[in-house]
Amino acid sequence: MGFSFSSLLLVGVALAGCEAASGFGNRYGPDPALPAKVIYASVDNQIDIMAKLAEATDCRGEQDSEEATNACHYQTTIVGFNFVDEQCDAYLRELFALDTERDRLKTVIAGADKLTNAVLAVAPASKATMAIVAQSFGLTSDYVNVAADSYLFKADAGIVYNVVSSLQESYRNGVARNREQIDSRPASYSAIRGYLRLCMPPTIQSKITTTLARAVAEEADANTPPGTLQNPDLVSP
């Protein structure tokens, strides 16, 4: 006995749900306790990371002054920023490639849909058959969007790139202006982590949403005649 299309669809949805659930162990937030084993692993990880990043600087051994030591911490931070840039650039390139592939695949599916309907129109096929075939292609096109939206923002890849570049430049400039605050390896690690968060999907999506909302508000203000109350209900009689 064969599976129907709807049965296969349900199986696919169930498998996707199981896979998603297995990857969301922290969906209820961080552990309210301080788990010792996790802390040990985190500290060891930080020590290894910062020691390796420090190797790429001009600093070697103990420094002669506090100023020189702090300069080394800042240089280590810049090395960390450069690594994050490499990872972020690779991520954005993949986003661009996935976005391009999605559009190309949807175009192919749309073309196949039209060709199939044209063939069925001249063949002895019922209208029900034509409708089923068309719906099948339509669902396939939707699946392309669902799969892509699991990885992509609903924004142009160029916009995402510009947003991230702007955030990174601003962050680097801020750290450079306040480099005296990078006075230890933990402070350097924290600065690098903050820089990494700029390339995280929630940060990018939030920045795009905020920018769009500000643009809409500015446009509304520009189109409002001088002296017009934007919300008269807030004014007491």
List keywords for this structure.
globular, 237 residues, 0% strand, disordered C terminus, 7 helices, mainly alpha
Secondary-structure blueprint:
Elements (H helix, E strand, L loop, with lengths): L4 H18 L13 H19 L11 H57 L4 H23 L7 H21 L7 H13 L3 H22 L15
Helix pairs in contact: 3-4, 3-5, 3-6
Q: Would you write up a description of this structure?
A:
The chain is mainly alpha-helical and 237 residues long. It contains 7 helices and no strands. Helix 3 packs antiparallel against helix 4, helix 3 runs antiparallel to helix 5 (157-177) and helix 3 packs parallel to helix 6 (185-197). It is globular and about 60 Å long. Residues 229-237 have low confidence and may be disordered.
In short:
This protein is mainly α. It has helices at 5-22, 36-54, 66-122, 127-149, 157-177, 185-197, 201-222.
What characterizes the major β-sheet?
none
Distance between the termini: 75 Å
| Radius of gyration, taken over Cα atoms and rounded to an integer in Å | 27 Å
Name the overall outline: globular
Q: Compute the average pLDDT.
A: 73
Strand content: under 5%
In the predicted model, the low-confidence regions spanning at least 5 consecutive residues are 229-237
Helix content: over 70%
What order do the helices and strands follow? HHHHHHH
Structural class: mainly alpha
Count of individual helical segments: 7
The total of beta strands comes to 0
